[in-house]
Amino acid sequence: MERLLCVTSGNPLSIQDEDIDLFLPSPKVGEDAYVSAILARYTELSRIQGIIGEKIYRKKQKSGTDLSACIQQIMKMLSEWFERCPESIRCNPPDSGPPPSREVVSIYLHYYHCINMTARPILLYAIQRQLTPHFQNSNTGRWEDGLSPDIIHVINRAISAARSSASILNAAAKYNLVATYGFIDGEQAFSAALLLVMVYMAFPYQEADALAMNMALDVLYSMAEKGNRYIQACHALLTKIRSTVNPKEQSGSANALDASIQIQSDTLSQAGDIIPGPPQDQSQPFGLDFEGDPALWAEFLKSIDIDMDRQWIETALRRGEQLETPDSMTC
Question: For 139, how many CA atoms within 13 A lie in the half-sphere containing its CB?
Fold first, then answer.
């Protein structure tokens, strides 16, 4: 909780790792080792989350190359963390079939949230770039154009992680495993939904992304309906942003999205067939060459701020107001 609160708010860690002199959880005699394994893995993820907050958002890297190396290191740490998880956890994501345990739901959501927090500056940069008039008026450009393979890989991994979070939250909600007033559940659900709304707004339409977005919004809606007013405001905000997407901008997507919403309740039960549990490239070692374009990494460095989400939301809402009044649009 301390790590999530500090990283989300941009405040320094109140408890440093070196100040904690306890050993990682281990099973007592006669106790199921599974429980202590879950606690140990969750604790290790919290350490990584602290590194994300300190090295990406609080400590200003000296150069784009330093930022590149930092993100590469964290992504490798996350990959290695996943590989060290017990096989019973790695091979059975919470959305894969049988009723999930709350412990496994929590550890997967924590893992995917760490991926998204690491990749967020890069993804937001790519999305902001897509929403500029130059790219909006281009019929031939791809969002990948001008981005190096390492950057594209990070972005795709973040999108995949958000899809997986949405799928897991949906599966957990069916068994009443999502806390109505839980800060962590609400923060992770909102983070995944926001990322997917961004992708829907800026990138070419993908059915898997649209379905996952609806899943995440549906989870937020269910929390709001049970009385969580903060989540109610978050859901209303994201729904408003989603409504700003001009159907003409998403070639062929409007009808497909309407259809996906109508059959959403039937589709969600089969979500595992459409939306993966772990990111599709999870088994791929994160060993790409992160040198890329130093100038581009320097641009990422300039744009990093803990309030990046809020700034993007304000931009999206202003853009929506312009779409409602075409005469006020400027190119």
Answer: 2
